[in-house]
Amino acid sequence: GRDYSQAEDREIHAQALEALDREKLNAGPFIGGALKAGESPRDVTSPCDRARILGHASEATAEDVDEAIQRAANAQVAWDRAGGAARAVVLRAMGDALEADMDRLIALLCREAGKTLDDGVAEVREAADFCRYYAMLAEQQFGGPEDLIGPAGETNRLVLHGRGVFACISPWNFPLAIFTGQVAAALAAGNAVLAKPAEQTPLVACEAVRQFHKAGLDPDLLALVPGRGETVGAALVNHPGIDGVAFTGGTETAFAINRSIAAREGAIIPFIAETGGLNGMFVDTTALREQVIDDVITSAFGSAGQRCSALRILFIPKANADDFIQRLAGALKTRVIGDPADPSTDIGPVIDAESREILEKHVQRLEKEAKVVARADLPEGAERGDLFAPVIAEIPTPDFLEKEVFGPILHIYRYDPDNLEEVARKLAARGYGLTLGVHSRIDAFAADVMALVPAGNVYVNRSITGAVVGVQPFGGEGLSGTGPKAGGPNSLIRYASEKAISVNIAAQGGDPALLNL
Ligand code: UN1
């Protein structure tokens, strides 16, 4: 692996960016291994520099979706029957292919999604980890029937198999890792996939699909159908040939998909949603100050706050608040904001102008109804792209935020420890339940916070982002998602169906080997 703190490896990164800039990239409907013309072609530009045209992208048509579903359905039966061990071979090859192409993928993540070098490295590794982890689960859980204990004279077995064709709809904030993770999960469980990437990041998705095919996947088992949610997304979730939907993205979009699926005539299909969070971190007076500062800065401003796991509201006891706020403001000033192609950059751009404008509008509200206590400076030339100056603000009530604000804005609420329960209940009442941080050295404090605030992932005395596949299975409750968690032992269950097979062996002369299903 590379060590990008070393000059040689940084040089390789710079060369990969240059090489990518000389390429002309294309994304569009990618069906049966062929890139199609699609419709509504447009330029893909970089969030770091809107004048930089990375390539072109087109959208899938309704006919493209039909064709891809047809091919997927035909290919899926053999893929399912091949079993988990055969599927694991392809998924492992995909993990290796991603790692082998790491330099180019990091460059592409930087240009198309505005990822810093550290985030790019982490993202390629995470994508490869998903492939390998789900390969392992495919072998363990889809390796053949499990014998159940039943009456004499029959065999009873339970077997997991794919549901059919899955639609995987992924976000722009992890355009490689979440895209690959969803696809790998659906494939591992024996499904074929139509994947719709976020509108902002079609190029990296197209690259991932190419890698899957190169890794030995039958191209009919994975099609890319790029486009808008209102067109392609709607076509997918309403299509009678789609047997399940996996979605990661905003809570509002999840509501819309849920309604569409519920309204489908003659179909009941699973919906796997991983959505937003209104993530809090509760600090008490026993917490280690330096640790808190470090973890808050990482959790709130890492990846420009564009993670669903990111810290949104920090709860500090009022006795320590002034000191903490001053230190956090100082720490924010040390962050380097700018072009993510520069390895020393800590915070890159937000994804697009729309996102930047939503955040600026939120800052206006904070200026009026709350108190902005620190704002970072933007470097020269920031207007070329969508850089947004990170903010720390103090909010007057624990329920000041109604919903997720997706970007580098940290809200702080100073609480009275006597009112901890009331404060925590107000946060919980918003209905989200993704990540939760606790900084304390008192068991009872951590236990109280955990009992009061719903969360799928609780982090104690550490940062609340960067869940590692297989180590911290990731996903929320309530408005934050349906589960199962990504990168955990139960990840594949809802992508699969369970079949119980009972054979009367008395009818075959007591010989269980005759019909050994
Ligand atoms: C997301 O931001 O949509 O733990 C989910 C983390 C990541 C979050 C990914 N796995 O920070």
Write structural notes for this entry:
This protein is an alpha/beta fold and 517 residues long. The protein is built from 14 helices and 20 strands. The strands form five sheets. A seven-stranded mixed sheet has the order 15-16-17-14-13-18-19, sandwiched between helices. The chain has a five-stranded parallel sheet with strand order 10-9-8-11-12, sandwiched between helices. β8, α6 and β9 form a beta-alpha-beta unit. α1 (7-22) packs across α4. The longest helix is centred in the N-terminal third of the chain and has 25 residues, at 117-141. The chain is globular. The model has no long low-confidence stretch (mean pLDDT 97). 2-aminohexanedioic acid binds next to loops. 2-aminohexanedioic acid binds at residues 171, 173-174, 248, 307-309, 465-467, 474.
